Amino acid sequence: MRQLVDEATVPTPPWSGPRSGPTGVTGKRIAIVAEELRNGGILGVAQGIGEAAHFLQWNVKIFDAGGTPAGRARAATNALDINPDGMILVGADVGEMAPYLKPFSDRAIPIVGWHVGPEAGPMNGSPVAVNISTDPLEVARTTAMAAVVDSGGHAGVVIFTDSNFRIAMAKANAMADVIRSCAGCELLEMRDVAISKSGELMPGITRELLDRYGSRWTYALAINDIYFDYAVQELTKAGRSPASLRMFSAGDGSAAAFVRIQANLYQTGTVAEPLNLHGWQVVDELNRLLAHQPVNGYVVPVHLVTPKNISHDGGPDLKFDPDNGYREIYKGIWGK
Question: What is d(CA 54, CA 60) in angstroms, rounded to the nearest whole number?
């Protein structure tokens, strides 16, 4: 486990993605349906899409679902109403969205996604052609292994997840498997907390867990940094020292998470996704579909941000943005 964790923390990982593809198809109207723009991961990807789309002169419009079923229906309907040339689904589960995606498929509007299913890469038999993500199971395993290594094999763990999303449950279960495989570790609980209600629920849940487990609770793992945004204040109030309860997140590398890691304030690591890079990936995959070519299906390797490497690859700007020249590579592919 230590070897795998060390490999995931190497700074400035080299570019291993595509270097060829179709020339940029310019001047298209693109709809983005975002699950919840208050989620830092979703917002970061949307910003990356906007940055990349600028070079293709795409007219991009964002529709925020607000994290609710009614919001998803409304956002999809409004997106269809602009008669887009392509659609990008960001952060919403493709199963939940299936009824709302069918009208796009019926009009042969190509769709690509980010974090829309439990597996990264092409999505055969789905209205979404490809799911851009790091490998969620590798993300989860790396997160849990980091906690095992950091604890010397004696972690008392609570895992936070959201059962509204298959990708979240797949990550949580993979983390749980790693903890269970550690003879000296203890999986205290897996707690289901809707991301959209984390601000409302996490303070009370944190107090409850502290009362229930006390000093046995030494590590918090989560499928997203956002849970920790609302737990830290309660941990501080309760007098738990940052050294006694450490946090690792299996995504997405929010600015708040970077601040906590830099300050050694409870959070010790996040498997940060290159959100801006993923935005460029999404645009490249959609460009391939608009050029009537197959998707590339590239999956970015897992990268664990810790106090040891946070000064590299965008860390000073509170994000993971690899220094591997991906922008110029994609612009070269598109002929820009």
Answer: 9
- At 101-154, the pLDDT tens digits run 999 999 999 999 999 988 899 999 999 999 999 998 999 999 999 999 999 999
Q: Could you report how far apart the first and last alpha carbons of the chain are, in Å? A: 42
Question: If you write DSSP's letter for every residue of 36-70 in order, what string do you get?
Answer: -TTSHHHHHHHHHHHHHHHHTT-EEEEEE-TTSHH
CA atoms within 13 A on the CB side of 214: 1
Instruction: Kindly calculate the radius of gyration of the chain based on its CA atoms and give it in whole angstroms.
Output: 20
- Asked if 327 and 279 count as a contact pair (C-beta separation under 8 A), the reply is no
Cα separation, 175 vs 198, whole angstroms: 20
What are the φ/ψ torsions at residue 325 (nearest 5 degrees)?
A: 75, 25
Burial class (CB in 10 A: 0-12, 13-18, 19+), 147: buried
pLDDT in tens, 26-72: 999 999 999 999 887 899 999 999 999 999 999 999 999 999 999 99
Which of 89-117 are b and which e, b meaning 16 or more Cβ less than 10 Å from the residue's Cβ? bbbbbbebbeebbeebeeeebbbbbbbbb
Tell me the whole-structure pTM to 2 decimals.
0.84
